[in-house]
Amino acid sequence: MSLVKINSKVTETLIEKVKNEILILGIESSCDETAAAVVADGRRVLSNVIYSQVPVHTLYGGVVPEIASRAHVEKINQVIRKALEDSGKTIQDIDAIAVTYGPGLVGPLLVGVNTAKAFAYAKKKPLVGVNHIEGHISANYIDNPELEPPFMCLVASGGHSHIVRVDDYGKYTIIGRTHDDAAGEAFDKVARAIGLGYPGGPKVDKLAKEGDPAKIDFPRASVGDSPYDFSFSGLKSAVLNYLNGCEMKGIEVNKADVAASFQQAVIDVLTEHSIRAAREYGCERLALAGGVAANSGLREAMKSAAEKEGMKFYMPSLIYCTDNAAMIASAGYYEYMAGKRAGLSLNAMPNLKVGE
Ligand code: KG4
Ligand code: ZN
Question: pTM for this one?
Answer without folding.
Answer: 0.94
